[in-house]
Design brief:
Order of helices and strands: EHEHHEEHEHEHEEHEHEH
Radius of gyration: 17 Å
Strand content: 15-25%
Shape: globular
Largest sheet: 8 strands, parallel
Amino acid sequence: MTTALFTHQACLDHDPGDGHPERPDRLRAVLQALDRDSFRELDRREAPRASREALARLHGERFVDTILDNVPARGHVMIDGDTAMSPGSGEAALRAAGAVTAAVDAVVSGQARNAFCAVRPPGHHAEPGRAMGFCLFNNIAVGALHARAQHGLGRIAVIDFDVHHGNGTQAAFEADPDLFYASTHQWPLYPGTGSSSEHGVAGNIVNATLSPGDGSLAFRRAMETRVIPALEAFRPELVMISAGFDAHRADPLAALALVEDDFAYATLQLCDIARRHAKGRVVSTLEGGYNLTALAASAAAHVAALMEG
């Protein structure tokens, strides 16, 4: 089995406006990096639209309607000071969430060993009832609930190495002991959640905070002493990754100092957990990363590790 790559042209049509860091060029840079010969074995698939049913499991019908009904015919609609919708945003958001549900289907059914979703807008800041932080729907949480509802999986884990805490995923998971969320992130930083004292129920939330300036050593120590042991104890049936690359030392929106090899290292560690507990099943989706060169190189290192793992 191969690694599947899910993406869609519509994800380039979400345009938050001139000067916005979450710009279409982010996805173009990732896709260009994944067009190299070393990635020719990727199983490239078109992301479908997420079903309303899949979105509503997490967000509820009213929230889904509010987002889709307010996509502008022209110009921009601001959800908050950071989060905008353009005429292409609704289709992009449906394809981004749909990529993750389709990736879950492919991996759980055995069509692919693992999968990466090269999509935008990102998702991990979107709470069940609130879009924020560049995110409209919480793509990875939608995918996790889809895995449970459609495939009968019990214990599902999301590991998030974006530099920002995934407040939306934590909010979706924290009261359910069969869902596990672990995050390495700079602290303090937007959105202000993710203290190491936040544990969820039965320890199903693990926040391994990092300080400004921390690099490879601190990140790998956090993975090895906090995230991996808790994930081992949880024994997930599916491993999902919120793959943000803005903890890279070149990223302009934060102050960690990771390099491409750190993302590859974390990916291989998570693939190893998946082999032991989840039949090797891993689904990853793009979150942040705002220096185009660092983003492209980091995403390539992550996907290469998925292909190896």
